[in-house]
Specification:
Layout lengths: L8 H33 L8 H27 L9 H31 L2 H32 L12
Helix pairs in contact: 1-2, 2-3, 3-4
This protein binds protoporphyrin IX containing FE (HEM) (2 copies).
Length: 162
């Protein structure tokens, strides 16, 4: 069976779309936080502004898109691993798995905090978000390191082409 050299177009589109949506929600976080605190103070009777509603909508969309992405990952798999020491390949796998877990945990914790008007869960949501951002930043740095320093063409695997 021929092994592919890059991710399928559908997988690539979802990788970048989800990355953009997560980045956008990070930027909307402060507005959501202010709206949430006001909502908790009023016992849940206030209305949310546009930015806070966008935060909820984008966050829930991320979860829906993630289900599609995980299904594609299971059925379409990934390209063959780049040549690297076994330990590095395992570290990459663990890092990607952690990214998936956090990508789910962040919006789900936000959803639970919001629906339960629960400030402790709000704190959990914040901590998980910061962890996700840290990991995603490291992930992007490593991808560029692979591509430009190790020169193994890794980035091309996440860019459409023949
Ligand atoms: C891609 C997913 C998401 C990301 C990256 C994200 C990110 C953030 C960030 C950065 C904050 C601000 C934290 C701070 O003040 O420092 C925040 C707050 C909040 N988010 Fe999200 N969020 C996501 C999804 C959701 C969803 C789906 C909901 C609810 C339906 C939600 C509800 C909240 C609430 C209630 C707060 C206020 C928490 C508090 O101040 O204690 N988030 N989010
Ligand atoms: C500038 C930013 C980014 C770059 C350059 C980048 C680059 C890449 C590349 C090249 C791969 C393929 C790795 C391989 O073939 O082994 C990949 C995979 C992956 N990326 Fe990113 N990425 C970025 C942002 C993000 C963000 C923000 C997230 C999530 C929050 C993310 C999550 C993932 C995951 C989970 C995989 C594993 C895919 C799989 O095999 O299922 N990436 N990324």
């Amino acid at each position: 069976m021929p092994t592919k050299t890059r991710y399928d177009l559908s997988q690539i589109v979802l990788h970048w779309l989800i990355a953009i949506l997560i980045g956008a929600n990070y930027l909307l976080g402060d507005a959501m936080s202010d709206a949430f605190k006001a909502l908790v103070r009023s016992g849940g009777s206030g209305a949310l502004d546009g930015a806070a509603n966008a935060h909820r909508l984008i966050g829930v969309s991320v979860v829906v898109l993630l289900f599609v992405r995980v299904a594609l990952r299971l059925f379409k798999k990934a390209p063959a691993e780049v040549t690297a020491p076994r330990l590095m390949q395992l570290a990459a796998k663990a890092g990607h798995l952690a990214l998936y877990v956090l990508m789910f945990a962040v919006p789900i914790s936000g959803f639970l905090a919001f629906n339960g008007l629960n400030r402790d869960l709000g704190e959990v949501h914040e901590v998980l978000t910061n962890l996700l951002m840290l990991l995603a930043f490291g992930h992007a740095l490593l991808a560029f390191y692979h591509h430009y320093v190790m020169k193994d063409g890794l980035l091309v695997r996440m860019i459409p082409g023949k």
